[in-house]
C-alpha cells in the first residue's frame, strides 16, 4: 500500500460569499514521484452562482494547474521545482477565485488510478 495526498480544486466566483464549485483534483504520491491534476469545470453550475463570473480568467487559471503538475518548460519557472514543491505550491491557501480544499491523505495500491476515482466522486455530477 502506498500513501497519497490529494486536494480538490474549487472555483469561488465571489470570495465574499464563500460558495464554490468543485472543478478538479490534484493527486501526489511522494513514494512514486507522482503529481497529477485534472480539471473539469461545469460552467453552468458556476454561472448559477455568479452570472457575471469572468469565465475566460477562470479557464486560464484552471488550465495552469495541470501544466504545473506535469512540470517541465511548459510550466515556466514552477515547472523546475520538485514534485513535492509543486504540490505544495498548488495547494497553498489563497483568497482568490481558484482555491483548494485542505490536503487529504489516503492509501491505495495504485495512486495513479486515484485521480479518475476522485474526479468521479468529488467533481463530476452523478449520472441521472
Question: How would you sum up this structure, described in words?
Answer:
The chain is built from four helices and five strands. It has 128 residues and is of the alpha+beta class. A hairpin with a 4-residue loop joins strand 2 (21-29) and strand 3. The radius of gyration is 15 Å and the shape is globular.
Q: In what range is the share of β-strand residues? A: 25-35%
Rg computed from alpha carbons, rounded to a whole number of angstroms = 15 Å
Mean pLDDT: 95
Main beta sheet: 5 strands, antiparallel
The domain tally reads 1
Helix content: 25-40%
SSE topology string: EEEHHHEEH
Number of helical elements: 4
Distance between the termini: 34 Å
Query: Would you tell me the structural class of the helices and strands?
Result: alpha+beta
Dominant shape? globular
Residue ranges: pLDDT <50 for 5 or more in a row?
none
Number of strands: 5
Any chance you could write out the topology, listing elements then pairs?
Blueprint: E1 2-11, E2 21-29, E3 34-39, H1 43-49, H2 55-70, H3 83-91, E4 98-100, E5 104-108, H4 114-122
Antiparallel strand pairs: 1-2, 1-4, 1-5, 2-3
Describe the structure using short key phrases:
5-stranded antiparallel beta sheet; 26% strand
Amino acid at each position: 500500500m502506498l500513501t497519497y495526498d490529494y486536494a480538490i480544486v474549487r472555483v469561488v466566483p465571489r470570495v465574499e460569499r464563500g460558495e464554490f464549485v468543485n472543478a478538479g483534483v490534484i493527486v501526489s504520491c511522494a513514494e512514486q514521484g507522482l503529481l497529477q491534476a485534472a480539471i473539469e469545470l461545469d460552467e453552468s453550475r458556476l454561472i448559477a452562482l455568479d452570472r457575471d463570473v469572468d469565465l475566460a480568467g477562470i479557464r486560464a487559471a484552471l488550465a495552469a494547474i495541470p501544466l504545473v503538475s506535469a512540470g517541465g518548460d511548459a510550466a515556466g519557472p514552477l515547472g523546475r521545482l520538485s514534485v513535492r514543491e509543486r504540490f505544495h505550491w498548488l495547494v497553498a491557501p489563497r483568497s482568490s477565485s481558484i482555491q483548494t480544499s485542505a490536503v487529504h491523505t489516503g492509501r491505495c495500491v495504485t495512486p495513479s488510478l486515484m485521480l479518475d476515482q476522485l474526479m468521479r466522486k468529488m467533481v463530476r455530477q452523478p449520472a441521472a
